[in-house]
UniProtKB/TrEMBL annotation:
GO terms for molecular function: pre-mRNA binding; ubiquitin protein ligase activity; zinc ion binding. The lineage of its organism: Eukaryota, Fungi, Dikarya, Ascomycota, Saccharomycotina. Pfam families: DWNN (PF08783), zf-CCHC_2 (PF13696). This is DWNN domain-containing protein. One of its GO terms (cellular component) is cytosol. InterPro entries: DWNN_domain, RBBP6, Zn_knuckle_CX2CX3GHX4C, Znf_CCHC, Znf_CCHC_sf. One of its GO terms (biological process) is termination of RNA polymerase II transcription. It comes from Spathaspora passalidarum (strain NRRL Y-27907 / 11-Y1). Its main location: nucleus. PANTHER family: CELL DIVISION CYCLE AND APOPTOSIS REGULATOR PROTEIN 1-RELATED, RETINOBLASTOMA-BINDING PROTEIN 6. It comes from the Eukaryota. The keyword Zinc-finger applies.
Length: 352
């Protein structure tokens, strides 16, 4: 299983990674990999130290310390002191660790024991691997003992003071107020509080917003509900919004644009219908199918309901009209205007 360790030199901005097998790596092996990856040479003129990323002043002092995978460490390369020329990084290059190093002492009562080895130069590779795993197990056991003695501190929200007041424009998105941080929200300790998401007015022009006073919101808060997206909705179905200034508002419908859209849609429908009728009338005239035209209107397709007068029921009786079929509504109006005379032959008392 391939694991990684993140590291960064103190003088660099970008971090790098070291790949290794296993769940952890010792400080000795990690320094060796860093020197090889960055081609730092034989290590005689410098020393390499590792620090915790959370506590930059805390050093990984012992080569036997174990660093868990996916950790992030800081690396510092410093020149060798003239007083101690043997304290350099050459041992990491040659792969020969120090053998008489003391394990770190802690205030914990747990005692970790290690088996000292007089010399690692003459032992086999299998014994070296076994020794490495033993050191890792001992270090992990010691870490567990230290963690077992840590005191658990539960988080308690602090009271809001002048020095902890949020800046102008800040809004607590748990309760919707702006006089405190969300970590100091009075509803944090209320197990029955149901958070309601209040949307911002980002992207909505101010001309489409209607401001609502906070007093109205507080008076009607019990009647508000939430939709499927968790937004606060009033009785009329409007979503309650909050502006950058912390005021409440609802979005108004753009009635002017909607009316203009409806008019354009109606005109487009009317134009399309007229073009269809003109095309249909042209085909009827080409095929000489006058029975499909309304005889009481000029160039209009006959529409149902279709009726005939009792006196004119066939094409041989046509006199004034080109068709004996009429639209019922149009024929009724013509009969009333002409004292119930047939529009084709003029017969009196024509009823349908």
């Amino acid at each position: 299983m391939s694991s990684i360790i993140y590291y960064k030199f103190l003088h660099q901005k970008n971090q790098s990674v070291i790949h290794f097998d296993g769940t952890a790596i010792s400080v000795f092996d990690l320094k060796k990999e860093i020197i090889q990856a960055n081609q730092l040479g034989n290590g005689l003129d410098f020393n390499l130290t590792l620090y915790h990323s959370e506590q930059p002043d805390l050093e990984y002092e012992f080569d036997q310390d174990v660093i868990q995978r996916s950790s992030y460490v800081l690396v510092k390369r410093s020149p060798v002191s003239s007083n101690n020329k043997f304290n350099n990084a050459s041992r990491y290059v040659t792969g020969k660790p120090r053998i008489n190093r003391k394990m770190p002492t802690t205030a914990a009562p747990a005692v970790t024991t290690t088996t000292p080895i007089a010399n690692t130069d003459n032992i086999s590779e299998e014994d070296r691997i076994k020794l490495m795993f033993e050191n890792q197990s001992n270090a992990w056991a010691q870490t567990q003992d230290e963690l077992a003695q840590h005191k658990i501190i539960h988080y308690k929200p602090t009271t809001t003071g002048k020095e902890d007041a949020p800046p102008p424009g800040y809004i607590c998105y748990r309760c919707g107020k702006k006089d405190h941080w969300i970590k100091n929200c009075p509803t944090n300790n209320d197990p029955n509080f149901e958070g309601k998401k209040i949307m911002r007015t980002t992207g909505i022009p101010k001309s489409y917003l209607k401001t609502i006073s906070k007093q109205d919101i507080e008076n009607k808060a019990d009647s508000f509900s939430t939709n499927e997206n968790g937004d606060v909705v009033d009785n009329d179905g409007n979503i309650i919004l909050i502006t950058d200034e912390g005021n409440y508002a609802v979005a108004l419908a753009d009635s002017k644009t909607w009316t203009s859209y409806q008019e354009k849609l109606a005109n487009a429908t009317k134009k399309s219908q007229q073009e269809f009728n003109d095309k249909l009338i042209k085909l009827i005239e080409q095929d000489n199918k006058k029975e499909f035209l309304d005889p009481l209107a000029e160039k209009k397709v006959l529409e149902p309901p279709i009726v005939m007068t009792p006196c004119c029921t066939e094409s041989s009786k046509l006199q004034k009209m080109k068709n004996f079929n009429y639209n019922q509504g149009s024929l009724e109006r013509v009969l009333i205007d002409n004292d119930f005379h047939c529009p084709n032959c003029g017969t009196e008392d024509t009823f349908i």
